[in-house]
Amino acid sequence: MPDITLAAVPRSDLGSRPAGRLRREGFVPAVVYGLGNDTVTVTVPSRDLGRILSGESGANTLINLELGGDSMLTLVRQIQRHPTRDELVHVDFIRIRRDVAVAADVPLHLLGEPAGVRDGGLLEQLVFSVTVEAMPGNIPVVFELDVSELVIGDQRRASDLSLPADVTTQLDPETVVAQVAAPRVVVEEEVEEEPVEGEEGEAVEGAAAEAPSGAPSEGGDGGE
Questions:
Q1: 92: exposed, middle or buried (C-beta count within 10 Å: 0-12, 13-18, 19+)?
Q2: CA–CA dist 105, 107 (Å, integer)
Q3: CA distance 88 to 92
Q4: From CA 207, how far away is CA 224, in angstroms rounded?
Q5: What whole-number distance in Å separates Cα of residue 29 and Cα of residue 151?
Q6: Phi/psi at 87 (nearest 5 deg)?
Q7: 93 φ, ψ (degrees, to nearest 5)
């Protein structure tokens, strides 16, 4: 993947108030660490960094961070965003070397509509990113997995992923990453209806109101 250059400016005013002012001015507070060197606090242009993170490689884009005439090869390692406005709040950069493997999270995309979904099943994606180890220039942009032939009950596992020869992962090969589950059927228990209060008494009264054939009625001649 191609490198991208991003300008950084040293930051000496720490704390929430200076950081808020920087954000209003269009910059993102950040730190740079790694390779045994001291941690450095910097700011970077918010718009430029946002454009990088929304690109094809996302946070796995190799960034040449230019600071005070020096250039450092870095990767974005932690991103903090505003909970409602989705604005960049803070970013961590890690220094890397081209000849040393690094860990990176690579997104997993599912391709196709499973046959089981057309039969009423439900496609469930259980893994959305795969942690790999690779040389910085060999980090995959994305993993794609075709699930179009899955029927209800079928699964795709980590072993079904196509990893380049120079890319490894610690993910268990038997880990289920996607499956087509049977449709969920809600079974309602049949509840026996209870008699409405008063119904039973009304039935008795109705039965008592019918006198047996030939029996004297209340207040009749036989009652004398």
A1: middle
A2: 7
A3: 11
A4: 25
A5: 49
A6: -85, 150
A7: -110, 140
Integer CA distances (angstroms), 66 to 6, 7, 8, 27, 154, in order: 6, 5, 6, 15, 49
Query: H helices then E strands: how many in the chain?
Result: 4, 13
* pLDDT tens figures, 28-86: 999 999 998 999 999 999 999 999 999 989 999 999 999 988 999 999 999 999 888 88
- 3-class SS at 71? strand
Q: Tell me which of 83-92, 127-136, 150-159, 205-214 is least confident.
A: 205-214
- Residue 103: both structure tokens together: 């860990």
Encoded amino acid at 170, one letter? Q
The DSSP string of 101-155 is -EEEEEEEEEES--HHHHTT-EEEE--SEEEEEE-GGG--S-EEEE-TT--TT-E
The secondary structure of residue 77, as a DSSP letter, is E
Tens digits of residue pLDDT in 116-131:
999 999 999 999 999 9
pLDDT at 140: 94
HEC string of 9-45 equals: EECCCCCHHHHHHHHHCCEEEEEEEECCEEEEEEEEE
Indicate the DSSP class of residue 156: E
Model pTM score: 0.74
Q: By C-alpha distance, which of 54, 47, 50, 42 is closest to 26?
A: 47
- Distance, in Å, from the CA atom of 194 to the CA atom of 180, rounded to the nearest integer, reads 42
